[in-house]
Amino acid sequence: MNTVELIRKKRDKLPLTEKEIKFLIGGFTSGKIPDYQFSALLMAILLNGMGNKETAALTETMLNSGKVVNFSSIKGLKVDKHSTGGVGDKTSLIIAPIAASAGVYVPMISGRGLGHTGGTLDKLESIPGFKTDLTLSEYKKVMCKCGAVLIGQTKEIAPADKLIYSLRDVTATVESTPLITASIMSKKLAEGIDGLVLDIKTGSGAFMKTIKDASELSRSLINTAKSFNKKVIAFITDMNQPLGNYIGNWLEVYESIKILKGESKNDLYNVCLKLAGAMLLLGKKTQTISSGEKLAKQQIENGEAFKKFLEIIELQGGKINYINSPYKYPKSKYAKKVRSIKKGFIGEMDTYKIGMASLELGAGRKTIDDVIDYKAGIILNKKIGDSVEHGELLCELRADSRAKIKVAEKMILDAMHFSKTKPSKHKLIKKIIV
C-alpha cells in the first residue's frame, strides 16, 4: 500500500478499508510513516469524516495496538467515566474516589491537555510524586488494593492512541467525531470495563460547540461501545463557562479537595454528583441515577470519598501532605487581581478564550515539548448571571511571568461579556442518553 495514495483517497472523501486503516496505524506507530504524512491524514479525516465501519475499524485497530486488560479475577463491576474535555473540568479527580468508595471498581486511563482544555494526567502530576506511568502489573495492583487507579496510556495499553493523541493536539485536528470516538473507546475498551459514563461537553469551551454536534458524538460513542457489548450512559453538559471556579492544574486539584471534603457545592459539585450517580447505577450499587446521586452525596458527607482520594494518591506515589495541607504547595511568583471596568451582570463568557488565557499563563502546552507550570492558572470570582460592580474582583491570575499575566489579563477581559439585565443561567445538564 502507498501512504500518499491513501491520504489522497481520504482527501477525496472516499472510505478507507479495514486493511488500509491497519496499514496506516501500524506504519505510524512503527515509525515508517512520518508525522507530516500522518498529520495530513488526520486533517483529511477532520474535514471529510469517517463512516460507522471506518470508525469501528479505527477503534479496533487502535485497541489492538496493545494489550486489553483482563480484570476477570476481580469480582465486581468495572465502570469508568470519560469527558470530552473543557475548561476547569476536573470531574475525574472527584468521581473516581466517590464511586470507588461505594464499591465500584474504576480503572481510569486518562489523557493530557488538548488545546485550550486541561488534561487529567497533567492535573494529577501536579501532585508531587504522583505516578501516572504505572506498568500494567502496577496498574492492576493499585486497582486491587483500593478499587480505583488513574493512569495514562502505557506502552502496553492503546499505544497507537498515545502517539495520535499528541499529534492531534498540535495539528488542529482535535474536533473530529471519528478521531475522538476512536481515541476514547480504544483506551476505555482496553481497560477491561463493563460500563462507561460519558460526559459530552457543549458550548463555547467545548470541542462540540452545539448540542447537535454533541449528540452526534454521543451516538458515535454509544454505538461503538455497544458493538463491544458495554453498557453506556451519556450526558450532554454545559461548557459555556468554566466548570467550577479554578482553572489550572494544581488549582483544580485544590478545588477537587474542597468538593470531596464537602466544603464547596457549586456547579462542579452538582455535575459530579450526577456523573457519579450514573457510575453507581452501572456498577449496580443503586437502581436509578437519582438514588446514585444520593449515595454519592453520602460518600462525600461521611468522609469516605476524600479518604479514598488520599488512598489512591498514596498508592500511586503522591505526597498526601499537600492534599491534607494544600496551603503548603508552592505559590506562583506573581498574582494579579483582575477587576471589572463595567457595572452590570456577567452575560456571557467565551470559555475558549479563558482556556487559552490559562494556557498563556503556563498551565497548558502550545507544542508537544512545552513544560507545564503546575502552579499557574485562574481563580474565577464571577460566573454567568452574577452581578458586578465597577472595580469588583472578576478573577485572579497566577504565573511566574508578569508578561504572561499581562497577555492573559487582556484575554480574560475580552472573554467576559456584560449585560445590563440579569441573564438566565445555562442549564447544566442538557440531555441524558441511555
What do these coordinates show?
The protein is α/β, with parallel strands linked by helices. It folds into three domains: 3-48, Transferase, Pyrimidine Nucleoside Phosphorylase, Chain A, domain 3 (Up-down Bundle), CATH 1.20.970; 79-324, Pyrimidine Nucleoside Phosphorylase, Chain A, domain 2 (3-Layer(aba) Sandwich); 331-419, Aldehyde Oxidoreductase, domain 3. The chain is built from 17 helices and 13 strands. Strands 1-4-5-13 form a four-stranded mixed sheet, with helices on both faces. Helix 5 (91-101) packs across helix 12. The protein starts with a helix and ends with a strand.
* Helix and strand run: HHHHEHEHHEHHEHEEHHHHHEEHEEEHEE
Q: Which CATH top level class of the largest domain fits?
A: Alpha Beta
Ends apart, CA distance between termini: 41 Å
Q: Which CATH-level-2 architecture of the largest domain?
A: 3-Layer(aba) Sandwich
Contiguous runs where pLDDT drops below 50 for at least 5 residues: none
Structural class: alpha/beta
- The fold-level CATH name of the largest domain is Pyrimidine Nucleoside Phosphorylase, Chain A, domain 2
Q: Largest sheet at a glance? A: 4 strands, mixed
**Shape, principal axes of CA atoms:** globular
Please report which band the strand proportion falls in: under 5%, 5-15%, 15-25%, 25-35%, 35-45% or over 45%.
5-15%
Number of domains: 3
By CATH, the superfamily of the largest domain comes out as: Nucleoside phosphorylase/phosphoribosyltransferase catalytic domain
In angstroms, what is the radius of gyration? Answer: 21 Å
Strand order of the largest sheet: 1-4-5-13
Overall mean pLDDT score?
Answer: 93
